[in-house]
Amino acid sequence: MAAIFSYEPRTGRLVGSAGGQHFSLLAQRGGVSSWEKQGELRLGKWMPSDHSFEMPDHSGPAPRALRLRILTAADRVHLAASGRRAINDCLRARQGPVVLAENDQDACLVHGWPPCRSARCLVVPHGFAALVRAVVRAGM
Length: 140
What we know:
Radius of gyration: 18 Å
Largest sheet: 8 strands, mixed
Number of strands: 8
Helix content: 10-25%
């Protein structure tokens, strides 16, 4: 039984099943998580080309399936050798379990609190321990 999940950037949720359990966990991305702009609109001072945005009803790109597995000591050494500084800094700061989420094109780390600054990580502030237990069960 595999642990197959998807990350939905629009809702910020990591959704899937592992070890016979279904999960829908709120996840925070590392790096810049929000961007705000203050301004005002005045009659005659605004052009439609001044701003671009996604329509709220647009679903965006389809989420890709992510395979989840717990990083072993050998995985940590392999990732450290890859030279990705942000991931290495994150791994050095983590003493507990870290989950590797990968698809055919890319990979990222999933871990619990505290957050890191890596844009290559998803932070699950609540329910991470249950996710780890389910991924371990799914890997057996």
